[in-house]
Amino acid sequence: MQILRIAAIAAVISSLGSGAVRAYELNPLKNKYHGGRPEGGFWERISETVHEDITDAAVWCMAGRETAMPSAPCSLDAPGRTADTKGNKWNALIRGVWWNDDPNQHLFGVHYATWAIWMRDAQGIAKTHRDWLGRTKALNATYKMQYRSHYGDLQFLHAMANADGEAAAEVRRRAINWIGFAYAVAIGNIEAETKLGDIDDPVMTEYFTKQSGWTVNHLFAPKFTLGRSTIPDVALGSILHVVQDSFSDSHATRDYGSSPVCPHGRILEFHAYGSQDSGRHGAADTRSAWRTNSNFTLKMNPVEASARILQFAKARAEWHTAVRPYLESELFCLDLDSRPSGAGEYAS
Asked: Is 17 within a domain?
């Protein structure tokens, strides 16, 4: 059993190293049961805890604003966890941050090899339209969520286009629609046991008509759950994943300067992974890449944006008058110089 587990972890290491995870890096294995492991070490040879670090920093920033300095800028780092901190296994928000990369929850369990095999198969189908057995396949709405998230029609879960040539406004529409649905779950407007087919939402009609019998609970926790009451935090974590990925240079090109429409900066292009070099893409998703990004501003960086979303959710801010305007006019602002999706500077 131990040999099989080591082999499975090795398969995950191989997949992560190939750039298969098109997102800021995350690692469900490190700090799973206990907090406080320092940066580096064996587990981070697999993948760094970038999404987790950004989320921890955002939570810390929001807490500080509530108790001391409401307008204080967010630090890119949170204080280190102590050894007695509960592991991420019990953190529903972190589970949600993981979900976009692992919606079938293989990495959260012990099915690491399955996750890696599915990634290889999805990549093959995307490139050749044939699965690992040579059968003709298409990554449509009936396929597994992991396949759709990384190589199919749900790539907005990583703030990316599905293919070259897609208008920035269209990619933004998909991402914001998803955030709107997840936000409704996060603030309790949609309950965990609601069936997807009973939800009047554009995301459901566009992407989940084949899953109308699923509940929201099943969508966000198909195998492992901390209970129905934690699903709002899982949905909130999924929003954070999209927000954070939009600051990775291999996911989107941003201009952090002001423009007539976007005084706090704007997105110039959402990228498409299919035309990118996976190794170069992956290098932009590391901890060092986001910590050393000198283009970030006090108002426009992944920690600040994540903290804003957390504050909205805690206050149960109204979607149409508060949250959506922030997304459209600040976080995902577009001006006349936006362009169709492509590889950016990461072409294969």
From this structure: no
Question: Does 3 reside within a domain?
Answer: no
Cα–Cα distance between 149 and 344 in angstroms, integer? 20
pLDDT of residue 14: 46
- Burial (CB < 10 A; 0-12, 13-18, 19+), residue 19, is buried
Beta partners for residue 161, in sequence order: 272
User: How many angstroms separate the CA atoms of 301 and 254, rounded?
Assistant: 11
Count of Cβ atoms closer than 10 Å to residue 347 Cβ: 11
pLDDT value at residue 76: 79
Spacing of C-alpha 68 from chain mean position: 30
108-151 pLDDT, tens digit per residue, is 666 777 878 878 888 888 787 787 777 877 788 888 899 999 89
SS (HEC) of 20-76:
CCCCCCCCCCCCCCECCCCCCCCHHHCCCCHHHHHHHHHHHHHHHHHHCCCCCCCCC
**Encoding tokens for residue 166?**
């897609």
Q: Is residue 151 part of a domain?
A: yes
Cα 115 from Cα 146, distance rounded (Å): 8
Range of the domain at 278: 90-105+121-331
Provide the number of structural domains found in the chain. Answer: 1
Q: Please give the Cα distance from 66 to 77 (Å, whole number).
A: 18
* pLDDT < 70 positions in the chain: 1-47, 68-69, 78-87, 108-110
Residue 269 β-bridge partners:
253
Distance in angstroms (rounded) separating the CA atoms of residues 308 and 317: 11
The answer to whether residue 233 is domain-embedded is yes
Instruction: Give the separation between CA 313 and CA 290, rounded to whole angstroms.
Output: 25
Q: How far apart are CA 16 and CA 279, in angstroms?
A: 10
- Is the pTM higher than 0.85? The answer reads yes
Chain segment 213-242, per-residue pLDDT in tens: 999 999 999 998 889 999 999 999 999 999
For residue 81, the model assigns a pLDDT of 53
Tokens of 85: 């901190």
